[in-house]
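REVIEWER CHECKLIST
Item 1: Sequence provided? yes
Item 2: Single chain? yes
Item 3: Sequence as submitted:
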Amino acid sequence: MICYNQEVYVREALMSALQQDLAGEQLEIIVSDDCSQDDTYAIVQDVASSYHGPHRLILHRNDHNLGIGANFYQAYTLSQGDWLVMAAGDDISMPERSRILHAAIQKYPTALGICSTREVIDATGKHRGYDTWRKELYGASTAWHRRVFADYAPIPPSVAFEDALLTFRLFMLQGEAIFLSAPTVRYRVDGSSISSQGLSDALQTQKKVLVVVEKLLRLLECLRKDYDVVRETLPAPLRDRWQAKFNAIENSLISRRQQAELALLVMSRPFLTNIAYLFSRQATAGHSRFVDRLGWLMRNDAAPLRALRAFFRSKNALYAAYSPNVPSFADERMVADDFLRGDFLLNF
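Item 4: Structure as written out by the authors:
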């Protein structure tokens, strides 16, 4: 379990990990605190001091903040098992989580990653639906084989999206990923992520988009270094496809950065300038018709349309993408060919 400044939630998160029951087997519960500035680590120590259960509990606190990816790698270095189950300091592992994952590991011996559905909860713990995202292995609900760490260089502090990095690593090893419909984690979504920003905060959101794009470009740089580690083990056609994938992602991210920069320009322009643009004649492709220009202003939240969109936005829009019902699908298997044909990171 990795944690950072999660004093409100970390006790429940750690207790849920310690309460796992795998038919009498001893689990290795590793807590790596990323130099929290609140009482997170003190709470972890308090829980540990009163724990007398069957599992082996290992506590660690970084002497400076590493970031999510490097902190997860730190937890890996303290582990001994073949599989590492990710847990965050604000999420809750369901009691049957280890049993479900253990059964899947036995069923799919060639898998290098197993990802389950997430029950989504809000800051108060209220149920908000189910997340069945299956374009990558979602960190909060994934078990990783240690090869995705051991066969590569350590995860650098510059990497912010460790689950994306590990997903690529898994498929570059020509491993397979398994997606399970059974929920095993209560995943907390409280509105602090970029995808949760309200439309009334559109200007700030676009600024955050630029920050995320830069982080993804740094991730891509790291992925290319990881690719060099395994390149000679791949057949030539697969090498070409990975190179094409990286190039397509880079082009997509650069385009997204340009869109965000343009959106910031539009949003910062005076009201009358945008009205003048709306009713002007434009020869540029995609701007020649009135409906095109209106749509462009709407997409970029130009004043005064920004306020109009915010007014009509549902208060529960943050959770609108999640399924209201418990998902039910057969286990899904994804291999490198499936991943390379997908659009992960291409439509950010």
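Item 5: Key structural point noted by reviewer: The two ends are 28 Å apart (CA to CA).
Item 6: Recommendation: ____
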